[in-house]
Amino acid sequence: MFRNQYDTDVATWSPQGRLHQVEYAMESVKQGSCCVGLRSKKFAVLAALKRSTNELATHQQKLFKIDDHMGIAIAGLTADARKLASHMRSECLNHKFNFQSPMISGRLVSQVADMHQWRTVTLGRRPYGVGLLVMGHDRDGPHLYQTCPSGNFFEYKAMAIGSRSQSAKTYLEKHFESFEGAELDEMIQHALKALKGPANDKEVDSVNTSVAFVGEGKTYTILEGEDLKPHLEVLAKANAAADEAKMEEDGGAEGEAMETA
Predict the structure, then answer these.
(1) Tens digit of each residue's pLDDT (9 = 90 or more) over 36-65
(2) Which terminal CB of the chain, N or C, has fewer other CB atoms within 10 Å?
């Protein structure tokens, strides 16, 4: 009942202690297409499903390079994401110019979170309607962070954001313990499997899927189109083998049930 009265400005609190515009921004992240991030001892990987407004349009970019050692995946408003990506690139460039070393991932994520939070307390502005998964590799190894429009940020071993990301989170929760010692190809396969979860309405393919990684001895690299096809072929073979094994198991169980009857 208070929403029409208390959502006209971001700094106006409702009687229930809520900032409705911040909640709207959080909802825009939930409406964005799914993005997945995970890390091991050596590598950090991002994967994202791209959307196209219609058959005549290209797919929207979901992964952005920030520096040679850092990249982001976005869910939410692309225009806001481009603004934040531009700021992050400038900060990395300034840090490299002043200190002759790459910027530490956590420090930059903290600055971006401050930008998010400043938008929640400033009159005449709205919150950034985008969530970020930030991967980086610095002197402490690989990192994966999530930022929220509210100004919160967290570090994860694996995380998924965006529309229908719950199935991806379920997969990551089941397998995250095996990520620590995984090699790059294994990490990419885990990212694609999480992205492909049963809740997603589209099959992952070389057109609507992007994968990027950084890590030990690896600068930021993005895989799309033909570069991604070998990994998708491995995923297809693994899925076919799993389906065949399941059919054999179901057939054996059915035969055992008939003998028992």
Answers:
(1) 999 999 999 999 999 888 888 888 999 999
(2) C
| Number of domains forming the structure of the chain | 1
- Whole-model pTM? 0.89
Q: Does residue 116 form part of some domain?
A: yes
Separation between Cα atoms, residue 28 and residue 125, nearest integer Å: 16
Give the domain range for residue 193: 21-227
Q: Do the Cβ atoms of 149 and 22 come closer than 8 Å?
A: yes
Q: What is the CATH number of the domain that holds 46?
A: 3.60.20.10
Model confidence pLDDT, tens digit, residues 104-140? 999 999 999 999 999 998 888 899 999 999 999 999 9
Q: Where are the alpha helices (DSSP H) in the chain?
A: 3-6, 20-31, 78-99, 105-119, 166-175, 184-195, 229-260
Domain contains 201? yes
At 30 the three-state DSSP class reads: helix
